[in-house]
Amino acid sequence: MRTPVIAPGLGVETLAARPMPPPVRDSIAHLRYNECSLPPYSERFRALNFDTPPGLKVESGQQGKVVRLSGQWTAFALARDHASTKRGVVERLRGVGEEAIRQWDLLPIERLDHVGGQALWRVWGRKLPERVMLSDTQKEIFERVALLDANREEPERTDRIDPITRLGLMLFSFFEHLHGGISMFGVFMLDLIGLVRRPKRIPWTEISANVYSAGTQALGITALVAFLIGIVLSYLSAQQLRMFGANQYIVNILGLSVIRELGPVLSAILVAGRSGSAITAQIGVMRVTEELDAMQVMGIPHGLRIVLPRVLALGIAMPLLVMWTNMVSLLGGALAAKLVLGIDLSFFARSLPSVVPIANLWIGLGKGVVFGMLIALAACHFGFRIKANSQSLGEGTTTSVVSSITIVILADAVFAILFQSVGL
To answer: Is residue 164, in this structure, part of any structural domain at all?
Structure first.
């Protein structure tokens, strides 16, 4: 006779034909009979109605109030009850818990999990009431809740920093960044001296690539902003000059303000927001992808291959951008002056060299060189301080842009003080 063999994990299947003793054969037949006699899956779980909402009923008697709970007191049922009603059963239970209750009856509850137990435990003040009717399963749940509540860890205290300590920390952070920036500038100067001694090591490819990305690709946005700034400045100045009959002095105002101040500062702010953030993000991504560590292991200096090309590139590109910004801004101002004051473009071009000394142009170009190098150094400094996570990358990029713009404004103030008697 061929009888089935039970394979572990596969149920009762005819896997091989081998003789079996009668006791084993009888047990297999009994097993198969029991499997066939089980009700279907839907019938087995039909008695558990998961749609029953949590119920709360308060009965008043001579000796006091009795609270009877019913339905499903589970996480799913409580969440659905809170979403479907304006005031959930937990909120109503808290109001009931503040009153004088003689007895709690939890026997009508169909299902109770730890979430429902925690809700009742908090309403009871983290202890069982004196008179409460519970089933054995409910007692076990509340015993576990009480055990967890007894071993609960207190939240860590957050130390509040007073304003004086916060000011001191800010000063320490400022001097730390200042030390890091000066150190990076020193490394840059040493690398530059080394390249002067060995011109063959000059990274021409990296320098030209950064000049293109920071200078050539920024011509469009700088031209648009400079043209609009020139129009606005010329229009506002013309309104005031017309009142005094000094229309021809529009050339003096536009020429001096644009060539000496607005051109370099406007170009520096745009480059700091565009190229400075890009440099910081590039170095930060290199930190995240561990390229900086790989370069250090291979013996490739970060200053020679990362910092120096970008500083030199911005030092070269910024004066050219300043010159481009001056030209476009003066063109916009000249067009606005012609429309508002009727000043001819040829008169504007002939009068500009005589009313604005050439020293102002050299001061503006010198500002461009200094601003470009400062922006690159600040961007590299904050890029190397980025940690290997996305949050640090975003924070470092934002800090780099804000710091670069602040450094540009401070440097412009220093230039104004040093050259206050030059070109005026």
So the answer is: no
**Does residue 269 sit in the same domain as residue 341?**
yes
User: Which residues have a Cβ under 8 Å from the Cβ of 324 and sit 6 or more positions away?
Assistant: 219, 222, 223, 226
Pairing relationship of beta strands 3-7 and 65-73 according to DSSP bridges: unpaired
Is the domain of 125 the same as that of 64? yes
The CA–CA distances, whole Å, from 267 to 321, 324, 326 equal 7, 9, 9
Residues of the chain with pLDDT under 50: 1-18, 23-47
Strands 101-105 and 109-112: unpaired
- Is residue 285 in a domain? yes
Contact 311, 184 (CB under 8 A): no
Q: Which of 164, 85, 80, 149 is nearest to 117 (CA)?
A: 149
- Residue 187: what are its φ and ψ, rounded to 5°? -65, -40
**241 assigned to some structural domain:** yes
Of all helices (H) and strands (E), which one includes residue 148?
Answer: helix 136-150
Counting the structural domains of the chain, the total is: 3
Q: Name the CA radius of gyration of the chain, rounded.
A: 40
User: H helices of 198-276, where?
Assistant: 204-214, 219-244, 250-256, 263-271
Residues, the chain: 424
Domain that holds residue 348: 176-418
Percent of the chain topping pLDDT 70? 84
The answer to the question of residue 46 being in a domain is: no
Q: Same domain for 204 and 91?
A: no
- Are 67 and 101 contacting, i.e. CB atoms less than 8 angstroms apart? yes
According to DSSP, residue 245 is labeled T
What is the per-residue pLDDT for 97?
55
d(CA 331, CA 27): 102
Q: How far apart are CA 328 and CA 350, in angstroms?
A: 17
Tell me the pTM: 0.63
Nearest to 74 by CA among 94, 59, 53, 46: 53
Residue 306: both structure tokens together: 């990362």
d(CA 214, CA 218): 6
| Same domain, residue pair 299 and 197 | yes
